[in-house]
Amino acid sequence: MKKWVRAALAAALVAMSAGAMSAAEARTVRWAASGDPNTMDPHSQNVGTVSMVLQQIYDTVISRGPDLSLRPGLATRWEQVEPTRWRFTLRQGVKFHEGESFTAADLVFSIERALQPTSNYGIYVDTVERAVAVDDHTVDVITKVPDPIIPNKFGSLFVMSRSWAERHNATRPQNTRAREEMYTVRSTNGTGPFRMTVREPDVRTVMVRNPDWWGWSVDEGTPTGNITEIVFRPISSDATRVAALLSGEVDFVLDPPLQDLNRLRSAGNVRVLEGPEVRTIFFAFDTSREELLYGDQRGRNPFRDLRVRQALYHAIDINAIQRTIMRGQSVITGTLFPQQVNGYVREEDVRLPYDQNRARQLLTEAGYPQGFGFTLDCSNNRYINDEQICQAVVAMWARIGVRANLNAMPLAPFFAKIQRDDTSAYMLGWGVPTLDALYSFQSLLATRNGAQGDGIWNYGRYSNPRMDELIQRMKTESGGTRLETIREALRLYREDVPHIPLHHQVIPWAMRANFSIPHVANNQPYMKWARME
Prior knowledge:
This protein is an alpha+beta fold. Helix content is 28%, strand content 22%. The protein is globular and about 70 Å long.
């Protein structure tokens, strides 16, 4: 059966189901953002542009509220019955979109799938030794070591149907590094509030309300949304996205350009919501290779020298970036994550000062009095004004004799490039869905040694034995002891300069006046709470 026929039949079945809203009650939201998900596989790419769509379709083990606090999801209860055993009691009567009943076997399968080598979700199951179905609605998760933050991690773990995955030869996640094609790249089958009916990459994704979703009848303390259809369109041009919103062609823009915010605020038919995001923008460098892949120093890697990294840090006028590029919509930082994250220490949130003379002195001490050259990889449609930030910093580095060639590209090829370790330096934005410090330290700074989740986004291959020791301790410690370990790791981060942190994003959302949705600090629009009046 042709794909468009299947999509039409699926939409018709949903419309005819007993819980579907009548045509008079139909509420369609047309949503636009600069980038499109590069896959629909729920365990392949742990990036915001993918999860913003998948979380409309798939449920996580544990849910989160608009304030990001943990709430019952597919698991209604969880407890640590032993130091290395967590027990999850599952919601009964839940169905996947294609009719399969949700059982413990599906959760066990989803955990095992997230543990596969092609998964980018290993960080959420890194301590898991095995998952066991106690009965149809109870799962025990046995961990290698005591893990006090398993619930935080499972708040980001999507659950799939085992039988559906087996039918479509999708028992492991898509290998995006190899650009693999498989069924889950364009097809979905979740238990969530919306069901995907159309997927046209880089054109549109259509999702319709799942009238049988368990959450419509559960009092979460949050108003239930009335959206019956979502039409998501990637629109890469800032000007075109703004024009579409002002004309009424779209109802919601996730990433309005900062330079247009005042214009949008003054439009009588548009509202702008703003708030801090749990995301930090930083530069990272190849500190592993003896010679850079993309550099002009034969047989040398300047980034392995702390003084070079300090010099590049001193050369950045962060106040100018905040004032001219971010238009005040950023929180300047000198640390790894924002204050919403467990483990944040204000005393360690200190930047190296902007000082070009000191930068030149450090380069000379390091043996680069004439500077050096390298290529900087940067996305141009993932973070707020990402390419403009990179352009500005390249110009600032040029003033101290460092010649950075900017290689800016859309998010899909950008992520594919750095995930192949095909980079010498790059800018990245890092969100913290678990709201715990370990997620950032383990993903970004742990030595990549094959351990599940360790260094999974450490594409500069930074390695420091002391940092590794602290990260391993964070995995098992609790209470004040664990907070002290995090504090020491933040101090080491500040002193060793594995990254150059810039700022935490402040995220504006723009929408038509008749559309409302809770603004959430993870920059994810939860359409289950959205309303169209």
